[in-house]
Amino acid sequence: MLKSLFISFLVFSTMLLSADEPSVMIIPFNPDMYFSDSDPDLAKYNRKSIPEVRKMFRYGLSINLNARIMKEHDSRSMISDSAQDAQLDLTRIYNSIDYFQDKAKSVQVKEELENNEKGLVNKTKGFFSKKDKEQTSNKDGEVGDDYKKYMNVRINNPELLPYLSDKYGTEIFVFINQFNLKTNYEHCLDRATNTFEREVLVHFSIYDKDGNQLAGDIASVYFPSNTNDLMDIMRNNFPPISDFLARNLPQNNEGKMSGDYMEVK
User: What is the sign, positive or negative, of the torsion defined by CA atoms of 94, 97, 98, 100?
Assistant: First the structure.
C-alpha cells in the first residue's frame, strides 16, 4: 500500500514539473566518506549498531534531499533507485571518482562575495552566523585565496556521466562527497548538563552531463549533543541542508559557473 502510494506520488510530481527543467540524479556519499565522533552515543541511545547509524544517516539524507529537489525537478536517488542495475552503477560511480580539497563555489558564496564588495553586513539566507546557529552555512568563510575549502569530487572516467545520462535520462548530477558529524568540545552549551555543540557538515558537488562543474560547497547545521534521537536529528537538520544544496541547482534560464562561483542571471 505504502509503495503504491509512493509510486503514485512520484508520477504525479513528475507530471507537475516543467519539461524544460533539467532532471537530477543524486549520488549518495560513499560509506568510506562518513566520519563521526558521535556514533557510539547515538548507537547506544537508539539501540542500533554503529553501521546501522551510518546507514540511517546515508539513506535519510538521500531521501530528504530527493524529496526537496522533486519540488522543482524530476529527481532520482541512486541509493533507492528501483532500476535493475542501479546498485551496480552506484559501485561503478564510486570506482570512477576520487576526492580533493577545493575552493567553495556556490550561490551562497556568490552572494557573500557580492555583499562584501558592497560593504554590506552578511544577510544571506542560510549563511552561518554566530548570532544564529539555527541557520545552514558554509561557515568560517573569508574572501580571498583562503575562502572556505570543501571536499570536491574528481571524475576520472570521462565516459561516466554520458553513460549515466543516456541510461537514466538525467542531466544534472549531485554528488554527496562527504558526511561529517563532529562535536565541538570547546563550545559548551550547558555546563550543568555537560552539553556541547554538534555539527553536521555535508560536502557536495553539482555537475552537468557534459562534465562541467556547476557548484560545490559545504552545507552545515548545528544542534546540541544531548539530542541523540536519530529521527529527530534527521527531521530537524536534513531539511535545511537540502534547501542549501537545492538553491545551487540550475533552472532552465540560469547561467553556468563563472570564475570561482556560480553565475546566476
Answer: negative
Q: Which amino acid is at 137?
A: S
Residues 31, 98: Cα–Cα separation, whole Å: 13
Contact of 160 with 265, CB cutoff 8 Å: no
Q: What is the rounded (10 degree) CA torsion for 12, 238, 213, 124?
A: 110
Q: Residue ranges of the alpha helices (H) in 70-183? A: 86-95, 107-117, 160-168
Per-domain boundaries in the chain: 22-262
Neighbours of 38 (CB within 10 A): 17
Grid coordinates representing 108?
551562497
pLDDT tens, residue by residue, 156-195: 999 999 999 999 999 999 999 999 999 987 777 666 667 8
Give the whole-angstrom CA distance, residue 219 versus residue 209: 23
Does the pLDDT value for residue 142 go beyond 50?
no
Mean pLDDT over 124-145 rounds to: 41
Report the C-alpha gap between 90 and 215 in whole angstroms: 21
The four Cα atoms 79, 84, 87, 93 give a dihedral, to 10 degrees, of: -100
CA dist list (Å): 142 to 83, 103, 188 = 43, 11, 25
Tally: H helices and E strands in the chain: 7, 10
DSSP reduced 3-state for 15: helix
User: Rounded to an integer, what distance in angstroms lies between the CA atom of residue 43 and that of residue 66?
Assistant: 26
Q: What is the dihedral of CA 165, 171, 177, 181, to 10 degrees?
A: -130
Cell numbers given for 140 = 568560517
List pLDDT tens digits, range 205-257. Answer: 999 999 999 999 999 999 998 999 999 999 999 999 999 999 999 876 454 54
